[in-house]
Design a protein that fits this description.
The protein is 42% helix and 13% strand. The chain is α/β, with parallel strands linked by helices and 387 residues long. The chain has a seven-stranded mixed β-sheet, sandwiched between helices. A three-stranded antiparallel β-sheet has the order 11-14-13, with helices on one face. Helix 4 crosses helix 5. The radius of gyration is 21 Å and the shape is globular. The structure holds pyridoxal-5'-phosphate (PLP). The site of pyridoxal-5'-phosphate has 13 residues, from helix 4.
């Protein structure tokens, strides 16, 4: 893997940052992305901006394999993007099933409950992907309007089997709605081919783009729901129905308005998407998978267990490690930080204080991985000595 292919940038780009932040997000943006973000927000009616917005949407379409779907790039966090999907597509009062593999599935459930949608979120064994047979049983006993899932749950590092889940949901007349915020830019995504109904992405993780935007892909069932909706959504600014005509106008290089887009963030995102496509959809996924494998081999040689036991269920860009029994989690992470590498504390349910997270997303390189493994090795021995 060449540095050019990884980023479209010169090798300067690979000067290590201090400290090296191996985090889920925001991840290290390429200089050309930062440059676009630093430009003043263009007037909304500026033809150059409208054309760039159109290119940004076309790039998103390509990246998530969504030629027939609607796409939208709207201001907000990942969480507001999740809420947007729920508010726009789900009918209050009708139950949903959440295939929760950690805190982000739990957040799907909490958003639904807050909006008056009963949500059933069965638990799977720790670190395991959703069990299709259990979900099948639930679907055969109850009527759900949708199945909600995180493609990759960043609290557990579990990747879900989207084609299997979408097939199951559709067999039972339910929508399949996916939170892909920590997957986009690092995992294979085929919105059309996998027949997904909604896919949510965010820029600041696997795409190494600016925080503050929610990226939506909506398949044909979701488009139908929006066309035929006979209820009034319980939120105004989050309703995707009002954004879609604006996005369609931008793709035709025409001005459209419902709320102000986040101008300079869109410019930064468009550049991040350009770099991702220049690397190649498959090449980018393969780079993340290869770096993950190197990292996991290194952690294994240091005697660190991963939360996800099954290799095929491990995300490409996020690893959740189990803190060895004889160590204090905080002391261990501080010892690694002393080596110049920043990890993140665990967020997986009751195991938060027994786990730690490593993000290897976006512009991560082999040198970053090597440095991380050696910092963890030193961190293990110094924190053992201190305890
Ligand atoms: C980071 C993340 C989000 C959203 O995060 P915000 O902090 O709301 O931007 C949603 N889902 C997953 C899986 C994530 O990793």
């Amino acid at each position: 893997m060449t540095t050019q292919a990884a980023t479209g940038q010169s090798t300067d780009y690979f000067k290590p940052t201090e400290p090296l932040a191996m985090v889920v997000g925001p991840t290290r943006p390429a200089p050309s992305v930062l440059k676009r973000m630093s430009e003043p927000a263009p007037p909304l009616t500026d033809p150059g901006f409208i054309a760039e917005f159109g290119r940004c949407l076309a790039r998103l379409r390509r990246l998530i394999g969504a030629s027939a779907a609607d796409v939208a790039v709207v201001p907000g966090t990942g969480t507001s993007g999740m809420e947007s999907i729920v508010v726009s597509l789900l009918r209050p009062g009708v139950p949903v099933l959440v295939a929760s593999t950690g805190m982000w599935g739990d957040r799907w459930r909490d958003i639904c409950l807050r909006l008056g949608i009963p949500a059933h979120a069965p638990r799977f064994p720790v670190g395991r992907a959703p069990d299709l047979r259990l979900l099948e049983t639930l679907f055969s006993r109850h009527r759900y309007q949708a199945l909600l899932v995180a493609h990759v749950d960043s609290s557990s590092g579990v990747r879900a089997d989207l084609p299997g889940l979408a097939g199951l949901a559709h067999e039972h007349g339910a929508l399949c709605l996916v939170d892909g915020v920590s997957a986009i830019g690092a995992e294979e995504i085929q919105l059309d081919a996998w027949d997904l109904d909604a896919y949510l992405g965010g820029p600041p993780k696997g795409l190494a783009g600016p925080p503050g935007l929610a990226l939506h892909g909506l398949g044909r069932r979701a488009q139908e729901v929006l066309r035929n909706r006979d209820w009034t959504p319980g939120a105004y600014s989050l309703d995707l129905a009002s954004w879609l005509p604006v996005m369609a106008a931008m793709e035709r290089e025409e001005f459209g308005y419902c709320q102000s887009p986040a101008g300079n963030l869109v410019l930064g995102l468009s550049e991040a998407l350009r770099l991702a496509l220049a690397e190649g959809r498959e090449g980018r996924v393969a780079r993340h998978a290869a770096l993950r494998d190197t990292l996991h081999a290194g952690l294994d040689s240091l005697g660190i267990d991963l939360l996800v036991p099954e290799p095929s269920e491990r995300a490409n860009g996020i690893t959740v490690g189990v803190v060895p029994r004889d160590l204090d989690e905080r002391r261990f992470m501080a010892a690694v930080a002393e080596q110049g590498v920043l990890l993140q504390p665990g967020t997986y349910r009751s195991m938060g204080d027994r786990t730690f997270r490593i993000g290897h997303l976006g512009t991560v390189t082999e040198a970053d991985i090597t440095r991380t493994i050696s910092a963890i090795g030193v961190g293990l021995s110094t924190s053992r000595r201190a305890s």
